[in-house]
Design brief:
Keywords: Oxidoreductase, Peroxidase. InterPro entries: Glutathione_peroxidase, GPX_AS, Thioredoxin-like_sf, Thioredoxin_domain. The protein is an alpha+beta fold. The chain has a single domain, classed as Glutaredoxin, CATH 3.40.30.10. It has 4 helices and 6 strands. It is globular, with a radius of gyration of 14 Å. The mean pLDDT is 96.
């Protein structure tokens, strides 16, 4: 099964898949509203605004697996993201990224090594996976800011 075949659901429960974004570069990020890294939402939104029209999409994946830092309902998450950070990029339903209940999307993504050659479990909230227009995946760890030069360069290399 390719990444594009894995069924997903939006925050409002509508079916979606990465196939809907096949011709775009997609930055998949597990997000949380009560995390020290939550301000990264601002950088993610700036990336969406800057590159969205050029074939790029941020895809936020709320996750409550790290110290319970995303406890809200779908409606609470949507309200927080919109009111606090003006988030315009799509959000998926709350998802497990590690462990026995790991979503199939993350079962595939965690196989990808980061810049230091380390694959495996998601370390914390705001881990980033850039899925290129060619389907290749590049991984950035949580403390790498969304607008870090290496992230921006990887995104720009995928734009039309």
């Amino acid at each position: 099964m390719s990444l594009y075949d894995i069924p997903l659901k939006t925050l409002t429960g509508e079916p979606v898949s990465l196939a809907d974004y096949r011709d775009r570069a997609v930055l998949v990020v597990n997000v949380a509203s009560k995390c020290g890294l939550t301000p990264q939402y601002a950088g993610l939104e700036r990336l969406q605004k800057e590159y969205g029209e050029r074939g790029f999409t941020v895809l936020g994946v709320p996750c409550n697996q790290f110290a319970g830092q995303e406890p809200g309902s779908a409606e609470e998450i949507a309200t927080f993201c919109s009111a606090t950070y003006g988030v315009s990029f799509p959000l998926l339903e709350k998802t497990d990224v590690n462990g026995d209940g790991r979503h199939p999307l993350y079962s595939e993504l965690v196989k990808v090594a980061d810049a230091e050659g380390e694959a495996g479990d998601v370390q914390w909230n705001f881990e980033k996976f850039l899925i290129g227009r060619d389907g290749a995946v590049t991984r950035f760890r949580p403390r790498t800011e969304p607008e870090a030069p290496e992230v921006v360069a990887a995104i720009e290399a995928q734009l039309v």
